[in-house]
């Protein structure tokens, strides 16, 4: 009987098999021709709770493997400060590592690509041989949004050169107290300058299409990266500048000073926003539903994803991690979409899963988070181009980018004094002189001039950290070949007097630091800087160049100094400092921060009633370039 079965039955079976194959072949979410919303909805309806929570989980490179990516459906990986595949790793080393992890993500049932994030906060600063741009405190001085946009574009190319698609940048903090250890990550004490500098976002991500809806994230393809406005909100306003402390201020102050740059960032299509460790009037930002969900998402219509800071939810409790279940509940309920766990990911996944299963966190909150994460991934083309190739490798530390950084250094310098009398300026210095002295701890130290967040989280002293030009090398490159350059780090006064120097350049400042390790109550120049200034400037005409992440105590020395330059943290391209000292270019920078007389005055910002600075906000002398034959 079976041999002569109904041919119609055979057709039905065939049709069913064809339908199964067709279904396997055509997945709407994998079709770039489908509208974004349709792709998100199609993928979401296929996802299990486990897969959704995996998307919300960001883990550190050190604990990530292809197997972990696959087993836990991990949505994102990051490199913390100094977390690299190998010391002095090449672009290819980075690409191989990122692709290996990506292959793990792609091997899951649904093949959702992961997004890899890194702190590229002044160029691609974790990576050997990358161009290190001046820190934000110097860039604010330039008041040049176009320069910021070009720096963003260059940084994006260097990040993509290593296979990475996401930069935790820019920091749009408004630092109101230089005692804060992150003040150099802030463009200015004035929110108007910080707002203008958000032009780095279209540099990193690309220009928004003309018909874009407000708040929708945008990344223009493979040469651009997802950006991150941080740290939401009020990180720069904490009491006494103590890192991660509480910003005690009324609503007018929070929304008038610390919030405005977020409006610009969202209008420019920023993909992500990172929440601040700090509190507002005692309420932890990582648990502040009114601001994260009520204001950022609902009122400002931000449609990208909100990410926590490193162990940010752990720090909702004091001490951190004291009640992790509460931390996860508070952070996710506040509206944080992606959690930078970053190491103990099984604890996070198990805790959040249980909170959902117990109906403490509703499925709608999980779906909101995942929808936002997928929106960014789809928008940036990650599903179509999940794996990196070598096409941008030559962008890392390219000559073009180094020239751009050199331009940024020149424009970020502020000339605070030029001559003991205005009729006798010392700068620009003559290139031709019999013998000149270069002194100071910061003259020949690439690590010092780059500052924190360079190769390592806290920065690295010395000249072996990466490739660049120290200020001493720049001076030697610039002077006439017949000029003798004598370098003595900390000369005594007899040495200075016994040599007949035409003039001296003294380069001193702060040593590198990051975050809470930079919090300072005294803001002094690192020893033996003060004695170097005294010994040299008492005996010969001197220009003092200050390499620091903020204004420091200078009032005791100003009278003795002939010329004074604030160079901030210029990065790898020290040649930009020599460009202005010797008059190849003029000084143009204007202070974007108030320079105090004494720390007892702090906090003191432009517009305050008791405003009595050493150098006021907006101050900066100018020089003209020297026309040489």
Verbal overview:
- With 629 residues, the chain is of the alpha/beta class.
- The chain folds into two domains: 118-382, Glycoside hydrolase, family 3, N-terminal domain (TIM Barrel); 413-615, Glycoside hydrolase family 3 C-terminal domain (Rossmann fold).
- It has 22 helices and 17 strands.
> What can be said about the biggest beta sheet?
6 strands, mixed
Structure classification: alpha/beta
CATH-derived topology of the largest domain: TIM Barrel
Give the class-level CATH name of the largest domain: Alpha Beta
CATH homologous superfamily name of the largest domain?
Glycoside hydrolase, family 3, N-terminal domain
Low-confidence stretches: 1-5, 10-19
What is the overall shape? globular
Radius of gyration, taken over Cα atoms and rounded to an integer in Å = 27 Å
Task: Give the count of structural domains.
Answer: 2
Distance between the termini: 106 Å
Share of residues in helices: 25-40%
Instruction: Tell me what the CATH architecture of the largest domain is.
Output: Alpha-Beta Barrel
In order across it, which strands form the biggest sheet? 12-17-16-15-13-14
This entry's quaternary arrangement is single chain
Beta-sheet strand percentage? 5-15%
Number of distinct helices: 22
Count every beta strand, where a strand is a DSSP E run of 2 or more residues: 17
Domain Glycoside hydrolase family 3 N-terminal: 49-376
Organism: Nicotiana attenuata
Domain Glycoside hydrolase family 3 C-terminal: 413-622
Enzyme class: hydrolase
Compact description:
Residues 413-622 form the Glycoside hydrolase family 3 C-terminal domain. With 629 residues, this protein is of the alpha/beta class.
């Amino acid at each position: 009987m079976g041999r002569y079965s109904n041919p119609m039955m055979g057709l039905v079976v065939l049709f069913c098999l064809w339908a199964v194959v067709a279904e396997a072949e055509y997945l709407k979410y994998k079709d770039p021709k489908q509208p974004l919303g349709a792709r998100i909805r199609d993928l979401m309806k296929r996802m299990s709770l486990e897969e959704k929570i995996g998307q919300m989980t960001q883990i550190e490179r050190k604990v990530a493997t292809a197997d972990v990516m696959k087993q836990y459906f991990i949505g994102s990986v990051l490199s913390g400060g100094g977390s690299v595949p190998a010391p002095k790793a090449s672009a290819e080393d980075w690409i191989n590592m990122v692709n290996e992890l990506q292959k793990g993500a792609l091997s899951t049932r649904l093949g959702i690509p992961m997004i890899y994030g890194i702190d590229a906060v002044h160029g691609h600063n974790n990576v050997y041989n990358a161009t290190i741009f001046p820190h934000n405190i110097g860039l604010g001085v330039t008041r040049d949004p176009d320069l910021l946009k070009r720096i963003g574009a260059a940084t994006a190319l260097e990040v993509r050169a290593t296979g990475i698609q996401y930069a935790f940048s820019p920091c749009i903090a408004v630092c109101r107290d230089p005692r804060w250890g992150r003040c150099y990550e802030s463009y200015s004490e004035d929110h108007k300058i910080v707002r203008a500098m958000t032009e780095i976002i279209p540099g990193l991500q690309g220009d928004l299409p003309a018909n874009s809806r407000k708040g929708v994230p945008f990344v223009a393809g493979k040469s651009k990266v997802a950006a991150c406005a941080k740290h939401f909100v009020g990180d720069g306003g904490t009491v006494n500048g103590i890192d991660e402390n509480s910003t005690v201020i009324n609503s007018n102050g929070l929304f008038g000073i610390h919030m405005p740059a977020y409006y610009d960032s969202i209008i420019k299509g920023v993909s992500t926003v990172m929440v601040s460790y700090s509190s507002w009037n005692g309420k932890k930002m990582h648990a502040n539903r009114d601001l994260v969900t009520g204001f950022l998402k609902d009122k400002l219509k931000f449609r990208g994803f909100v990410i926590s800071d490193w162990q940010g939810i752990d720090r909702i409790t004091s001490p951190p991690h004291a009640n992790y279940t509460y931390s996860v509940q508070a952070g996710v309920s506040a509206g944080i979409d992606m959690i930078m766990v970053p190491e103990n990911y099984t604890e996070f996944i198990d805790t959040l899963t249980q909170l959902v299963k117990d109906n403490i966190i509703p499925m709608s909150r999980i779906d909101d988070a995942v929808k936002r994460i997928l929106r960014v991934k789809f928008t940036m083309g990650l599903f179509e181009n999940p794996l990196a190739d070598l096409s941008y490798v030559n962008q890392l530390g390219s000559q073009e980018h180094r020239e751009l950084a050199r331009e940024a250094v020149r424009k970020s310098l502020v000339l605070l004094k030029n001559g003991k009398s205005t009729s006798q300026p010392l700068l620009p210095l003559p290139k031709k002189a019999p013998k000149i002295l270069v002194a100071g701890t910061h003259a020949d130290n690439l690590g010092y001039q780059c500052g924190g967040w360079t190769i390592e989280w806290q920065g690295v002293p010395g000249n072996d950290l990466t490739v660049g030009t120290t200020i001493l090398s720049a001076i030697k490159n610039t002077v006439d070949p017949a000029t003798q350059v004598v370098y003595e780090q900390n000369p005594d006064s007899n040495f200075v007097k016994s040599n007949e120097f035409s003039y001296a350049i003294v380069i001193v400042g702060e040593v590198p630091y990051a975050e809470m390790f930079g919090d300072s109550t005294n803001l002094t120049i690192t020893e033996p800087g003060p004695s170097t200034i005294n010994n040299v400037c008492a005996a010969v005409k001197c220009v003092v160049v200050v390499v620091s992440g903020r204004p420091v105590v200078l009032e005791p020395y100003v009278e003795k100094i002939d010329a004074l330059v604030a160079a901030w943290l210029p990065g790898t391209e020290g040649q930009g400092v020599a460009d202005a000292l010797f008059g190849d270019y003029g000084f143009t920078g204007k202070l974007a921060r108030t320079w105090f007389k004494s720390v007892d005055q702090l906090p003191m910002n432009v517009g305050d009633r008791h405003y009595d600075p050493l150098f006021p906000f907006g101050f900066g002398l100018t020089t003209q370039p020297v026309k040489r034959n």
